[in-house]
Write a sequence for this structure.
C-alpha cells in the first residue's frame, strides 16, 4: 500500500468476482427498511464513467441484475466525445460557437445536436430526451474571427473542468438510464 491509500474489504459481489462485470471499479451495498436492498456501483469502459444507484431490491440478486442492466444500457448506448473550441453552428439566422473544449456524452447511434435560437446545444436521446445542454457563444459580425487550427498550451482542456463536466454528464446519464430502466421494469411487472 502506498501513501494516502486505503483498502477496505468489499461486500460488492461485482468487485469480489462473484458476479463479475467488466469495468466495475467501486461500490457499496446497503439495506434499510425504507429502501430495502441497495447497491451503488461505479464502472468505466472506453473512457465512459457510469454510476448506477439501485434501490428497493427485494433480494440482493435483484440489485445486481438491475445494476448490470443499467451498465449494459449505458455502455452499449453512449460514448464521450470532445468538441473543440470554435466549432460553429447556425440556426435561425444566427451563428454560435463553442468557447472552449467541451466534453459531450452522446448516444452512439444518434448524436446530431439540436441548436436552439438562444444558442443552447442540446444532446438528445433517440426518444428526444435532453441528456446534456451546453450554452454556446453567439457570434456577432464584428466578433467572427477565423479559428486557429494549431493547438497551443492555452487550447488544452482544463482537467478539472473536464472532470466536473464528466461527472455532471454521468449524473444526467444515470438519471436518464434509471428513468428508462424503471419505466421498463414497471411495465414488465404490470403485465
Amino acid at each position: 500500500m502506498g501513501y494516502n491509500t486505503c483498502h477496505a474489504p468489499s461486500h460488492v459481489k461485482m468487485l469480489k468476482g462473484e458476479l463479475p462485470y467488466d469495468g466495475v471499479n467501486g461500490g457499496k451495498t446497503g439495506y434499510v427498511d425504507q429502501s430495502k436492498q441497495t447497491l451503488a456501483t461505479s464502472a468505466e469502459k472506453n473512457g465512459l464513467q457510469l454510476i448506477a444507484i439501485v434501490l428497493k431490491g427485494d433480494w440482493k440478486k435483484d440489485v445486481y441484475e438491475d445494476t448490470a442492466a443499467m451498465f449494459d444500457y449505458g455502455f452499449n448506448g453512449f460514448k464521450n466525445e470532445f468538441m473543440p473550441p470554435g466549432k460553429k453552428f447556425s440556426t435561425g439566422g444566427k451563428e454560435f460557437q463553442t468557447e472552449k473544449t467541451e466534453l459531450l456524452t452522446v448516444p452512439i447511434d444518434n448524436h446530431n445536436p439540436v441548436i436552439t435560437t438562444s444558442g443552447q446545444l442540446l444532446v438528445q436521446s433517440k426518444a428526444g430526451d435532453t441528456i446534456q445542454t451546453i450554452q454556446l457563444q453567439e457570434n456577432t459580425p464584428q466578433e467572427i474571427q477565423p479559428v486557429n487550427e494549431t493547438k497551443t498550451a492555452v487550447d488544452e482542456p482544463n482537467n478539472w473542468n473536464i472532470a466536473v463536466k464528466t461527472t455532471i454528464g454521468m449524473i444526467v446519464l444515470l438519471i436518464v438510464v434509471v428513468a428508462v430502466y424503471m419505466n421498463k421494469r414497471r411495465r414488465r411487472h404490470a403485465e
